[in-house]
């Protein structure tokens, strides 16, 4: 039931005063609904994975919902789109804050105080496929009917400045798939013109922003797949990538490339977005995946697999495509999102320390470390890799990448070349 992934890339803060890290990873397990018996066999759940302790637990069960389709983190809260409801939960306690009844809800996005929701459902039509709510009190701000808004089922959302770009795919009406991107002005709440992706760009299943251009991964009429590049001025470049579909949103932005998988295959593929050409299979990653998402802090690729009725698992790969961890989750682990947080209270003390050279090919010299003052060096998952009291740090035996020098009252980012 997964209908795409709204992927939002977060970056390291440029400041050396605070460390950003992945506090937790939320996984939306879609569960198993038996359409023949009309029974929920395995409920949809939200799970939380702690990268520091590598522990996983179910934090919410979405009672009565046949599936979930999207998760969005915003400040101290997260929102879940699940079948007939939008849930708002506290990000730390996972307590339910409120709900919105919205049958057919699919994807979510937030701009300012506005919560945008798209809709679509198999064999069902709605009088409104796009609605906007106040994210704070969950009150309806606008519901666009099929005259003043999208005429067909909608899915992914990308926000650029004050415009929400809406993927209109009508994916639930076989033989009448659409390939449009609507534009919602978030200041005036007016739905404007639609960008036509063309015959080969029908049925956009995933959409994301890269280098100030919008990209969609399209399943066409379910006979093949394509990628469309859409400039903000409305020009479109669509290229076919396969004579088979990419499945339910099994694609993601990984660094500067698109990674995608053809349905029922075990090969993961790279696609160059600058040249709009296939690069080839990703070496070392062989599995049939359901979801793909990149950790924006350390670049790890999170993937999920499932048999769709009894189990699910998340596999984590590093930049060299080596698997670093895997853990069991619920059935059909769909959307994966990252709770990024920053260390606080460090800025006033950091200036006391000076580290050079930084970047370094291995050895870092520390100035300002007091006698008998200890430090720890941690990687981007929070694992302590080195500790001591010396005035130099040797990371020559560790991989290139980003590390953090932590003392009792300071934290400095180290770049190992």
Walk me through the topology.
Layout: E1 20-29, E2 32-34, E3 39-42, E4 45-50, E5 55-61, E6 70-74, E7 77-82, E8 85-90, E9 96-101, E10 105-111, E11 114-119, E12 128-134, E13 140-145, E14 154-160, E15 163-168, E16 180-185, E17 190-196, E18 204-210, E19 213-218, E20 225-230, E21 236-242, E22 251-254, E23 257-260, E24 267-272, E25 277-286, E26 291-294, E27 301-306, E28 312-317, E29 323-329, E30 333-342, H1 347-350, E31 354-356, E32 363-367, E33 375-378, E34 384-388, E35 392-394, E36 401-407, E37 410-416
Antiparallel strand pairs: 1-4, 1-30, 2-3, 4-5, 6-7, 7-8, 8-9, 10-11, 11-12, 12-13, 14-15, 15-16, 16-17, 18-19, 19-20, 20-21, 22-23, 23-24, 24-25, 26-27, 27-28, 28-29, 31-32, 32-35, 33-34, 33-36, 36-37
